[in-house]
Design brief:
The chain is 59% helix and 0% strand. The relative contact order is 0.13. By secondary structure, it is an all-alpha fold. The chain starts with a helix and ends in an 8-residue tail after the last helix. The protein has a single domain, classed as ERV/ALR sulfhydryl oxidase domain (Four Helix Bundle (Hemerythrin (Met), subunit A)), CATH 1.20.120.
């Protein structure tokens, strides 16, 4: 079980997160969407230097912005949970607890990481790592909490198996 002490942030992390929040709009691509980041960069450029149309930029080989990082992260976490053992051994449970602790400490968007650590530190949000079903539902709850904060739709966690393991019942996943 991840305890509050295990996920608390150091004073340095708190300072870094505060500073990052203040500067991220101008400097941290991984903390804001690429479009917003570029718009903020353009605000400090002369008219000649400004990017004409951000909608036509191919970002395939560029560092991720917060939206791509978030989508990729959730895809990884959901897929990992969907392939976790049905009934995890004590060792596997300890490893998953440690993974989640380290993940929440080193996630590239520091204020996102801090928010996740704070969420996990609440007793009702302790990581549930006993097995596949339990972990998948917990990851879905965590994802829905982020979606709620971002004003995005909430996913029906009872459909985790269709979405992340078996594919939709209508056969659309092949």
């Amino acid at each position: 079980m991840i305890t509050k002490e295990a996920v608390d942030t150091s004073e340095d992390d708190k300072k870094d997160a505060f500073v990052l929040k203040k500067v991220s709009k101008n400097r941290c691509r991984v903390c804001v969407s690429f479009k917003k980041w570029m718009q903020n960069q353009n605000n400090s450029l002369s008219d000649k230097e400004k990017t004409p149309n951000l909608d036509n930029i191919d970002l395939t080989n560029c560092p991720p912005d917060s939206e791509l990082l978030g989508r990729s992260t959730w895809t990884f976490l959901h897929t990992m949970a969907a392939n976790y053992p049905k009934s995890a051994t004590v060792k596997e449970q300890a490893e998953m607890q440690e993974f989640l602790r380290v993940f929440a400490k080193h996630y590239p968007c520091s204020y996102c990481a801090q928010d996740f650590r704070e969420w996990m530190s609440q007793e009702k949000n302790q990581a549930k790592v006993g097995g596949r079903e339990e972990l998948s539902l917990w990851i879905c709850q965590a994802h829905n909490e982020v979606n709620r904060k971002l004003g995005k739709p909430i996913f029906d966690c009872l459909k985790w198996k269709e979405r992340w393991r078996d594919g939709w019942k209508d056969g659309s996943c092949g």
